[in-house]
Specification:
single chain, alpha+beta, Trna Endonuclease, Chain: A, domain 1, Alpha-Beta Plaits, 2 domains, seven-stranded mixed β-sheet, four-stranded mixed β-sheet, 11 helices, 40% helix, 22% strand
Length: 260
């Protein structure tokens, strides 16, 4: 296949180039690649009675090996195939779920900057292992930066309503708002309220969490998860040690002062 030099600026080229030069940047490459909408040779059909459409992809031979060509932009695809073939535009993470992964992919074949992605690599992309691995390789500062950049902030009116609702649960001592960051998902951090509570049996605690979840989420525009901050939960020390509670159970003196 004849190689083409880039005739325009493709932002994804820099992401790939950085990952080639610096292994620490590989998490950012794989994360961006999973979120990328790629161009693939082929078409889509949907037969009567089928719930989901069927992909009909065209594989090509490169260096005597059958591969699936995928492109990061339509411009690159057209430069190679001159608009002579049909194509499918689809997110990488969707494509991974829809086809067998027994054939390598080549990202931007025909260009000087390209990457072969072998089946084993594709499998770890599909189940998220490779993203977790490279996320763990990042420095603590880089992880914190990623977390801070995407942290979910709740409006004051919602937090005030949530605080008022928590007062109806006498066993809740303190409540903290934090976020759960999953390096695999593309939905961003998930808001979570961690609760410090007086000890009760497991059934009572489970019922408390369920009730608080239903109560809190009637005010929120985005679903908020609820968790008990117990000693067994690794998140507990990080939350209690670094986050100020947004709710603290009123003391007896606080309650008495309401009648003054």
């Amino acid at each position: 296949m004849k190689k083409f030099n880039n005739v325009f600026t493709d932002p994804f080229d820099e992401v790939l180039s950085d990952a080639i030069k610096d292994p620490i940047r590989r998490y950012h490459f794989y994360k961006a690649f999973m979120d990328l909408e790629v161009i693939v040779l082929g078409s889509v059909s949907k037969d009567d009675g089928e719930e989901d459409p069927t992909l009909h992809l065209k594989y090509i031979e490169v260096d005597k090996e059958l591969v699936l060509p995928i492109y990061s932009t339509r411009v690159k695809f057209d430069a190679i195939f001159q608009s002579k073939y049909r194509y499918v535009k689809i997110k990488t993470r969707q494509l991974l779920q829809l086809i067998e992964l027994d054939v390598p992919w080549i990202l931007n074949p025909g260009y000087n900057l390209s990457k072969k992605i072998i089946p084993e690599e594709l499998e770890t992309l599909r189940d998220g292992r490779i993203l977790h691995y490279y996320f763990n390789e990042l420095s603590l500062e880089e992880k914190q930066r990623l977390f801070t950049d995407q942290i979910v902030q709740m409006p004051d009116n919602i937090m005030n309503a949530v605080s008022d609702s928590l007062q109806t649960f006498p066993s809740i001592k303190k409540a903290y708002l934090t976020n759960i960051y999953n390096p695999v998902n593309d939905d961003g951090p998930i808001p979570l309220i961690g609760l410090e509570v007086d000890g009760h049996g497991n059934d009572q605690l489970n019922q408390l969490v369920l009730t608080v979840f239903k109560t809190v989420n009637q005010y929120a525009y985005q679903q908020i998860e609820i968790a008990l901050l117990t000693e067994a939960l690794p998140l507990t020390n990080a939350v209690i040690g670094h986050i100020k509670p947004f709710y603290v159970r009123p003391s007896v003196d606080d309650l008495k002062s309401m009648f003054h």
